[in-house]
Structures are given as C-alpha cells and as structure tokens.
Amino acid sequence: MRADIEVIELDKKFQRFAEHWHPKIVAELNNSYVKIAKLKGEFVWHKHDDEDELFWVTAGHLVIKLRDRDLSIGPGQLVVIPKGVEHMPVAAEEACVVLLEPKSTLNTGDVESDRTVDAEWI
Amino acid sequence: MRADIEVIELDKKFQRFAEHWHPKIVAELNNSYVKIAKLKGEFVWHKHDDEDELFWVTAGHLVIKLRDRDLSIGPGQLVVIPKGVEHMPVAAEEACVVLLEPKSTLNTGDVESDRTVDAEWI
User: Fold this and answer.
1) Tens digits of per-residue pLDDT, B39-54?
2) Can you say how many angstroms the Cα of residue A26 is from the centroid of all Cα atoms in its chain?
3) Measured between alpha carbons, how far is residue B122 from residues A25, B13, B57, B94 in Å?
4) What region, left, alpha or beta, does residue A84 occupy, with left being phi > 0 and alpha being psi -120 to 50 degrees?
5) Helix, strand or coil for residue A10?
6) Nearest CA in chain A to B9
7) ipTM for the whole complex
C-alpha cells in the first residue's frame, strides 16, 4: 500500500498518457489494482484462469466479445468478466476504461504475446 | 458468482432506491462486492481492521473525515481508505457513491450500531 491517502481524479490521470492497451495503476486495495486504460481497436482473445475482471467505461464505447455474444458498454456502465470466460475487448473509437483486477492479473491473461505489458503506476 | 454476465447501468441501479446509508450490491468479483450507496448527513466514525475500502463518487459531493484531515471527493474522483484507518463519511447534500470492498466488510466496520446494515443485491 502506498503510504499516502490520495484523492484520485480520473480525468487528470487519463490526460497523462496516450497509448492504447497499456493499463496504468492508479490505486491498490486488498491485493487488487485499480487500473485505467485507453482502448482502441481489437485486443486479443484471452481469459484469466483465476481472476474475475471488472471493466467500467468512463468515456467512449467498448464492446467485449464473448464466444456466444457481444457486450456493449458505454459511460456509466460496468461489467464483470468471470474467471475462465474467454473475451476480446474491441473499441471502434477510443474508449477510456477503469479496470479492477487482482495484482497477479496479466493484461493478456493466458495468452502471452507482443500485446502483453506490465502495468505501471501513474 | 451470479451465473449471468450482465452489463450494469449504474444510473438505473441508483434510481431503484432512495434510502441513505444502505449500500446495495451490484456486482461481485474476486470475493469482493461492488456496492452503490446514497449518502446524506453524517455517518459514524469507524475503521475496517482487515479491509481496504474504495469510495468512488458518481454524483454529489462526499467528505471523508480522517482523524488528521478531511478528504473532499467529487464526481469522477475516488479514494482508497486503507485498513485500520478511522474515517467518517459526511455528505452535506445527497451523494451517490460506488464502493468496492471485500464481501466480509460491514458498513460500520468495527463499530456495530443501529447504523449497521446488511447489504443486499439490487
């Protein structure tokens, strides 16, 4: 736990980076991270064997493809993808998303690739 | 885990109840609940011995009093109160807040009182 108790202004944090698909850590609690990410285009199909993952859209629009249907998520909406469920996030235009997931979670889940990145604090 | 993967629209969930200081569960992940609450007035001083707690304000304005200072939190801002830190939420006018905390978390932490309530799904 970082020592200071800090009020986090999400808009200001989003303004501090531009790259897509590189989640940044803004807070930690109970062995999980709150991350923010800008998403645009298609990601990769993957799943997280042991971790549920929350997506909360704050701007733009995100589609999370599941194997049997698509989830459409706009500002003020959130969804939890349970562990083990294959999914692929897609954003036609840039979407700003808040993620909540255990510290152990890798962005590409069980599929390590050139899209795999370490999240860093911002 | 509830079986279905559901996109949760926070505004609609907030419209479904009016009472203050009665958190409602809207999602679960990794042994934690995402809860929403309407807060107005003063709560009680308390702490959570084993659980960090996230407050994310979506409407209105929340003050979280700490023993040494006040945190002021508006829409689009969030704060994590680490385990063991005494705090008292106060909202001069109604504030809509999203909470993230372990399933074991009691709203009044270590201080059971008539303000203690069980969260229920909404």
Assistant:
1) 999 999 999 999 999 9
2) 12
3) 29, 7, 19, 19
4) left
5) helix
6) A77
7) 0.91
